[in-house]
Amino acid sequence: MVLQALEREGVELIFGYPGGANLPIYQRLPNHPKLKHILVRHEQGAAHMADGYARACGKPGVVFATSGPGALNLVTGLCTAYMDSVPMIAITGQVNSTQVGRDAFQESDVIGATSSVTKHSYLVTKIDQLPRVIHEAFHIATTGRPGPVLIDICKDVQQAEAESVPHERLEIPGYKLNGHVDLDRAKEAAIALATAERPVVLAGHGVLLSHAEEALRELAERAAVPVGTTLLGIGAFPVNHPLSLHMTGFMGTGWNLKAVQNADVLMMVGMRVDDRVTAKLADFAPQVRTFIHIDIDGSEMGKNVRPQIELVADAKQAINAILPHLPEPEKGRGTWLAQIDAWREEHPLRYTHSNGHLQPQDVLIDMYKRCRNEAIVVADVGQNQIWAALWWNYDRPGLFLNSGGSGTMGFALPAAIGAKFARPELPVWCVAGEGGFVMTAQELSVAVEHQLDVKIVLLNNFSLGMVRQFQDDFYGGVRSQVDLTHMPDFVKLAEAYGLPARRVEKFSEIAPAMDAAERIKGPFLIDFRIDPEANVYPIVPLGKSLNDFWEAPESNA
């Protein structure tokens, strides 16, 4: 019944790990050849693979795990998907219904443990619940604001017999979707943009989820409004567009932060307006007279910034509702856009080009040249993530994947594997630091087993780089527990798993190593030994406002 229901929902791929409490499902899996199962090496890896799969193709990722520790190993991956609004279905085994709550072997309260990191969850104790629950779970995971849904199925339910009847009707009391746009608010938003002197639009992940990139570009060009993106919104607006402000937030570009802090109208689309965007909330966008907030989740309205104009709606629907009412800008934008251009010249992205060490930006610039605007790039968390985001140069949407809200180290490798399964026709590059990489490095086995053409760019500085930078800049320079010099030889480690690898220590070695990676049809790892003192800039000091951002020292420009 479970497997038939998954087939009805269009599932083709499952990431999972068997155990005692879900063996009845695995027993029937060979009878369903349409369902391809990927045996992972850790359940957390399974969750991240399902996440990367969903981000890359838009379909919900599906993950299987057994009870107790198996199910609990999914929690980090569920949280990652939940924070970033990624659709996922987790199906876990549970002890017999008669043993629930009696501390049976490998029993855990999976519903309680995951309630804060799932959109909804079900404990299935009766077989007649199964078809309805699975049908509802996919509906909930993929509609409105997407997210993970967990289905915990007792083992005796898996072993029971009943007539398999598909459940087509949804019965979800209280689950109401907002399918319309308030046209009055849309008109107000259009007028506010048109009458502004210094408007700015910030676009988040919701723009990508709703495929609103073209609508956003039309709005920006018609209203001559500059557009920045959040970390998760990268790709929502072309980076090289004349109106692009690139990334916003406490590690955003200098010209973006200047624009946000001097704007008089700020429209925020498909984003949570969280602390990484605002920095010191009391000093966020102090000159704005009209905040416009568009988000599909009404609970986000006013959570951090109180908007004057609220549009609780899908981003694409909301922007399309604004466009017909968008008159020609009443006030010329020339002065404002010229000011932004001046800030762009005054506060460019810069880095140390040579100080005897390999610089991460040199690696990423070479990688992005090879991506040719079409490869999926999956970044981990830490300095590597921000470097990859700031030097992103695409004009195409939806091809930069990373853990934003949760900031989960170890995300990149399994997520890249999931993305490659979802989009086998596209090149996939995985960018990670050595600290995050070793957290899920066992999933190299999956890449080798399936000969997935995933290129791994390891930015190795032998430390927890972002933590080290924070300690240097904001905690008195006391470096505490950030030394990662005792790490494996990653070339030998890769070869032990069965994939080729290279080590690169000089600028002149970057291109030959990248060439070698591209020649191989399969996984390839490059261990780039980068400058151990390289820092991320710009950065806003902790507790300060966006006005107080630091830039790379001039002497290192």
Which SSEs are present, and which pair or pack?
Elements: H1 2-8, E1 13-16, H2 23-28, E2 36-39, H3 43-57, E3 61-65, H4 69-72, H5 75-83, E4 88-94, H6 110-114, E5 120-124, H7 130-142, E6 148-154, H8 155-159, H9 183-195, E7 199-203, H10 205-209, H11 213-223, E8 227-229, E9 244-247, H12 254-262, E10 265-269, H13 275-278, E11 290-295, E12 309-312, H14 315-322, H15 334-346, H16 360-371, E13 376-379, H17 383-390, E14 400-402, H18 412-422, E15 428-433, H19 434-437, H20 444-449, E16 454-460, H21 465-474, H22 490-497, E17 501-504, H23 510-519, E18 524-529
Parallel strand pairs: 1-2, 1-3, 3-4, 4-6, 5-6, 7-8, 7-10, 8-9, 10-11, 11-12, 13-14, 13-15, 15-16, 16-18, 17-18
Helix pairs in contact: 3-5, 3-18, 9-14, 11-14, 12-15
> Percentage of helical residues?
25-40%
Low-pLDDT runs: none
Mean pLDDT figure: 94
Strand content: 15-25%
Largest β sheet strand count, sense and barrel closure: 6 strands, parallel
Could you state the CATH homologous superfamily of the largest domain? Thiamin diphosphate (ThDP)-binding fold, Pyr/PP domains
Count of helical stretches: 23
Shape: globular
Distance between the termini: 62 Å
Tally of individual domains: 3
**Alpha-beta classification:** alpha/beta
Oligomer: single chain
User: Mind telling me the CATH class of the largest domain?
Assistant: Alpha Beta
Q: Which architecture of the largest domain would the CATH scheme give at its second level? A: 3-Layer(aba) Sandwich
